[in-house]
Amino acid sequence: MMATTFLWALIMFMLLPWPYARVRQGNLYGHMTILGNPITIKGSEFASTRAIYICNHTSPLDIFLIMWQTPIGTVGIAKKEIIWYPLFGQLYVLANHLRIDRSNSTAAVESVREAARAVIKNNLSLIIFPEGTRSQSGRLLPFKKGFVHLALQTGLPIVPMVNSLRVRPAPLTVEFLSPIKTDGWDPTRINEYVEMVHALYSRHLPSSQRPGSAEDR
Ligand SMILES: *[C@@H]1O[C@H](CO)[C@@H](O)[C@H](O)[C@H]1NC(C)=O
Ligand SMILES: *[C@@H]1O[C@H](CO)[C@@H](O)[C@H](O)[C@H]1NC(C)=O
Ligand SMILES: *[C@@H]1O[C@H](CO)[C@@H](O)[C@H](O)[C@H]1NC(C)=O
Predict the structure, then answer these.
(1) What is the mean pLDDT of residues 68-80?
(2) Closest ligand to 55 CA?
(3) Which of 99, 150, 161, 181 is the most exposed place for a label (fewest CB within 10 A)?
(4) What element of type H or E holds 42?
(5) What are the residue boundaries of the Phospholipid/glycerol acyltransferase domain, all occurrences included (predicted)?
(6) Whose CA is closest to atom 14 on ligand 3?
(7) pLDDT tens digits for 165-216?
């Protein structure tokens, strides 16, 4: 693992002038890394289309595990402070994944627009954690609106991905749900879409991880 990561970092440095080649190399590396692991993937037929993949979030490492299960040409999107997360933050930046600036609303809107432009221009898919932060209680948090803005701006369908990375000793399972078409979505109904996707996602979680009482939020 150390050796392959080192080799991979070297390849990334050689690809510095080609940012989107780095995204694809990173995905490829991940696909090879998970090959040897007992992961059960359900709904993989939904994992081959260009989409906005959404996933729940429990640890900073998730972003890598998740990125490795999505198609080649999938870019991650995270808050810009990820760069300070030791090692993984730097690899994230090296792999040219997108960062958004949430310091104020103008910066947030502009960085979401930039991300949408990069996705369209480079024919990419996106992976985003719509909760925006890690759930301390292990229950699904409310969703932020960013993923709906990205759907409206790119016209890409939304594919929910439900992971059970922590359910041991059962093998790891990932389930891709069928794509939610967004091309006819109405920009004035953003809050409804956020709620609708959140409710759908919750229904696919075990009851212990569904949104709980107010004190969990
Ligand atoms: C998402 O939720 C599942 C099942 O509720 C949980 O086991 C898993 O750790 C979470 N995965 C991520 C990536 O947050
Ligand atoms: C918002 O943040 C950006 C980037 O950090 C900064 O350039 C801008 O001045 C800020 N705007 C406001 C209104 O604070
Ligand atoms: C864009 O990506 C999709 C799937 O990832 C692929 O089928 C298609 O050929 C690509 N289009 C271009 C113009 O590269």
Answers:
(1) 84
(2) 1
(3) 181
(4) strand 39-42
(5) 51-166
(6) 123
(7) 555 555 567 889 999 999 999 999 999 999 999 999 999 988 888 887 554 4
Give the nearest ligand 2 atom to 104 CA.
Answer: 1
Where do the domains of the chain lie?
2-206
Task: Confirm or reject: Cβ of 164 under 6 Å from ligand 1.
Answer: yes
Chain position carrying tokens 């594919």: 159
The rounded Å distance from CA 58 to ligand 1 centre is 6
Check if 166 has its Cβ closer than 6 Å to any atom of ligand 1: yes
Structure tokens of 29?
């590396």
Going from the Cα of 211 to the center of ligand 1, the distance in angstroms, rounded, reads 13
Question: Measuring CA to CA, which residue among 81, 41, 38 is closest to residue 63?
Answer: 81
Dist. CA 123 → ligand 3 center (Å): 6
Per-residue HEC secondary structure of 1-38 comes to CHHHHHHHHHHHHHCCCCHHHHHHHHHHHHHHHHHCCC
Third-level CATH fold of 2-206: Glycerol-3-phosphate (1)-acyltransferase (3.40.1130)
pLDDT, tens digit (0-9, with 9 covering 90-100), for 111-146? 999 999 999 999 999 999 899 888 888 889 999 999
Question: Helix 190-203 and helix 146-154: axis angle, to 10°?
Answer: 110
pTM tops 0.85, yes or no: no
Determine the 3-state secondary structure of 172 from DSSP.
strand
Q: What is the pLDDT of residue 29?
A: 74
